[in-house]
Amino acid sequence: MTFYYQPSDMQTQILSQGLPTPIDIKFMGLSKPEVLYDIARKVERRLMTVPGAVDIHIQQRMDQPTIRIDVDRDKAAKMASDTRAISNFFQDDIARNVLMEASSSMMVAPNFWLDPKSGHTYFLVVQTPLDKLRSMEELANLRIAGSGAAQTQYLGNVAEFSRARAPSEITRTNAMLTFDVMANIDGVPLGTVVSAAQKIIDEMSADLPKGVTIEMAGLGRTMDVAFVELGQGLLVAVLLVYLIMVINFQSWSDPFIIIMALPGAFCGVVTMMLLTGTTFSVPSLMGTIMTVGVAMANSILVVSFAKGELLRGQTAIQAALSAGRARLRPVIMTAIAMVCGMIPMSLGLNEGGSQNAPLGRAVIGGMLFASIATLILVPVIFSLLRRNWRPAPRQEGDELLAP
Description:
The chain has 403 residues and is α+β, with helices and mostly antiparallel strands. It contains 13 helices and 11 strands. The protein folds into 3 domains: 10-62 and 169-218, Multidrug efflux transporter AcrB pore domain (Alpha-Beta Plaits, 2-Layer Sandwich); 65-166, Multidrug efflux transporter AcrB TolC docking domain, DN and DC subdomains; 251-385, Multidrug efflux transporter AcrB transmembrane fold (Up-down Bundle). Helix content is 52%, strand content 15%.
């Protein structure tokens, strides 16, 4: 006998798409149930060796204790009045009577009673007391009635009973028999257990019988999909911002100088994750996207100011130095405000704060390094790419307009 208590974590259940555990490895195929169950058992044993994986179990048990009822067709036929009644008796009547007596009439024949005074509807349920169904002998004493039968009969008069073991439930996915190996996580990041489980799946896939497939479901699959989508979204966002800046600056090189602050932001995020021992997750990627937006905005201000200094006749180096000095205070103040605002979140001290702590840590690390890159790396690259720049000769009457 085994016990499993599902954690009452609503957020995890939602992200797991209703599954009881964050780790769910599905085995699907058209093979016999015993074949799929044996494969699931092998994966279950290997998953038990993964640090942090707990509550490992197979959702569908093959050894559920059951009572098998074998109906004697000759004896049962005598309880029906005609041929059609005999067919109905085999298909419905015995099953309906057993369910009604052992469970309740609500399962097979729900009845209602309307209270004429209050107008409320109540269920009328017929059920054999559970204390009278403690053995197979008492089960054999259940009275059943066939279609058109003149009187009721004991179930033991038309059926034989035996103890057996059968699947606790039968699950199908796209008409294929399915077994689920489920696991919880404890004390380690989700990505660590998912990576170990995926490695087991890859090793097992080479020796699977024909027609049997294995796939990851649950929160692990949700995390992988979110990683891919957020990564693609980040790349698309950087590309779109670059193209918009090309249109705005009427130049391909100026936007290139601006996005040079992004490597610093990424380095800061990675460094902070390593220093704090935090794994990359969906919140950390969201923090990276936030850092990218602020870093791009600061870099645009620096490059725009430097271009204005070039138009005023300064050299590239002088313009870069002027831009760095002029934007030093705004960039530093922005970084300090972001870092101070994210410190409480990064500590993760409140209830459930550990889930959002990676976001705050990613923003802090990204802002620290992005600010340095904006004030040092961006002006240096600007001065290198604009070192041969010469202002166009001004016509008489032209006015100097700063961008």
